[in-house]
Specification:
The chain is α+β, with helices and mostly antiparallel strands and 445 residues long. The chain folds into four domains: 2-70, no CATH class; 95-213, Conserved domain protein (Immunoglobulin-like), CATH 2.60.40; 219-324, Sandwich (Immunoglobulin-like); 326-434. 16% of the residues lie in helices and 53% in strands. It has helices at 2-11, 13-17, 23-34, 41-61, 66-70, 85-92, 255-264; strands spanning 97-104, 110-118, 122-130, 141-147, 158-164, 170-178, 186-194, 200-208, 219-229, 232-241, 246-254, 268-279, 282-283, 286-294, 297-304, 313-333, 340-344, 347-357, 360-368, 371-380, 383-386, 389-400, 403-414, 421-442. It has a six-stranded antiparallel beta sheet with strand order 13-12-16-24-20-21, with no helix packed on it. A five-stranded antiparallel beta sheet has the order 1-2-3-6-5, with no helix packed on it. The longest helix has 21 residues, at 41-61. It is globular and about 75 Å long.
Length: 445
């Protein structure tokens, strides 16, 4: 065996002279050596020789695949500039599944699914778009994930980011999807290319999930806490921490509540919910969030970065909540009237001034800066007149106790004049700040 290795070394001496051991590999090997006690120098020297020999043999018999060796622990290559810190760490640990499947369109554009990462929160796709014409960043391409051999289809929400090569020929994409069902193994990345003639060329990349390489979850907490917000109760259901992300899910209204609001004409359309996640007092960065209404009701999810492994305490804090509210509010107005106060959903709307000029009726109002009249009419002599425009005036900071509130003044313009005036406010949109602790507890190891 030694003779064979010597021959191989001599035959490839020039190539070997140009090889540089990757810094990551060198550091890992040196760390292992440093753990050996100094009291036995001979053993340490012997181990050094053995490790060096192993590295040499690996280089020889790997066929000089230097890129692979440079990323000795990584499953998915070429994405370092696109990955965040969490994904980089997981990739360095070899947490991923290689796919390496390509679909080529008729014009030569290629889409390669390089690999995936999977845990209980997310399925993350790593894929490359290549265009020989150097226009990979402007390819009219769409894609979606589909379950294969599944009785009930699943909708996959997605978010992602990418990076284009300098020559424009290659685009690296990382797309994050919600995780497929636990029993789902056969998947398909469906592709569509919009041609210049308006015809869509369809393609697909089928693949199988290797559940042995899935990472599962680290922590699941059933919070199940209801919070009263603006005469409505929302429910914070759960927190699921996995290697790729931390997910908080909840319910704003169930289907029965939605139906009742619809019948009463008091619909509520949630627009944003801001929840802060803290690990040992430090904020965990929010990544994405979503609100959706379907046959299950109105629900939300918020995705954060993964919890640090050493986290011992978590805190979930409601910061703010906002949406668009139906309201059946009609207010009689008089020309020349000032400082009339309207209260809706515990929000103040101050009528500063009402006047008419040049065939228009002007109504100046002041509210907090996070409130808007999203649907409003002015009934003039019994005829509803739609809002023509809003003229911004001033923002004023006012101290209210320990807080500073910004008041926003603007003028609503209605293109008619008359004697009898009635402001018809049909919908308002606002955000309310709460800063309330929802959940706080130690993590039991």
């Amino acid at each position: 065996m030694m003779i064979d290795i010597e021959k191989l070394l001599k035959a490839n001496k020039e190539d070997l002279d140009q090889l540089v051991i990757p810094q990551e590999l060198e550091i890992k090997l040196r760390t292992a050596l440093d753990k050996i006690p100094d009291k036995n120098k001979k053993i340490r020297k012997s181990k050094s020789i053995k490790i060096a020999a192993i590295v040499t043999i690996l280089i020889l018999f790997a066929g000089y695949h230097l890129d692979t060796l440079a990323y000795y622990g990584k499953q998915i290559l070429g994405y370092d500039q696109v990955m965040n810190g969490t994904l980089k760490e997981l990739n360095n640990l070899g947490k991923g599944q290689k796919i390496n499947q390509t679909y080529t369109f008729k014009n030569g554009v290629q889409v390669t699914l390089d690999g995936i990462m999977l845990d209980d929160n997310n399925m993350i796709l790593f894929f490359t778009i290549q265009d020989p014409k150097g226009d990979a960043g402007n390819i009219p391409l769409y894609f979606r994930m589909a379950d294969l051999w599944s009785v009930f289809g699943k909708e996959y929400r997605q978010s992602g980011e990418g990076m284009l090569s300098e020559d424009g020929k290659e685009l690296k994409w990382i797309i994050t999807l919600n995780a497929p069902r636990f029993f789902q193994k056969k998947m398909e990345l469906e592709l569509g290319y919009y041609g210049d003639d308006g015809v869509i060329e369809n393609g697909s990349i089928p693949f199988k999930i290797d559940r042995n390489k899935a990472m599962g979850s680290n922590l699941k907490i059933w919070i199940n806490k209801k919070i009263l917000l603006d005469q409505r109760k929302i429910k914070i259901e759960s927190l699921l921490a996995s290697p790729t992300a931390t997910m908080i899910k909840g319910e704003i209204q169930n289907i029965v509540q939605l139906g009742l609001d619809q019948m009463k004409g008091e619909r509520f359309r949630p627009e944003n919910i801001e929840i802060l996640l803290l690990g040992d007092g430090k904020e965990i960065q929010q990544k994405t969030s979503g609100l959706r209404t379907d046959i299950k009701g109105s629900r939300f999810h918020i995705s954060y970065d993964a919890l640090p492994p050493e986290t011992t305490e978590i805190e979930v804090r409601l910061v703010s909540f906002g949406g668009d509210h139906d309201t059946k509010t009609k207010v009689k107005l008089n020309k020349g009237e000032i400082n009339q106060n309207i209260k809706l959903f515990d929000q103040d709307i101050i009528i500063d001034q009402v006047y008419q000029s040049d065939g228009n009726t002007y109504i100046t109002i002041t509210t907090e800066d996070n409130l808007a009249l999203s649907r409003v009419f002015l009934n003039i002599d019994g005829e509803p007149i739609p809002l023509q425009e809003t003229i911004s005036r001033d923002n004023e900071k006012i101290a209210e106790g320990d807080d500073v509130v910004i008041k926003y003044t603007r003028t609503l313009v209605f293109p008619e004049i008359g004697e009898e005036l009635e402001l018809d406010i049909q919908r308002i949109r606002y955000k309310k700040v709460y800063d309330e602790i929802i959940y706080k507890d130690e993590i039991k190891s």
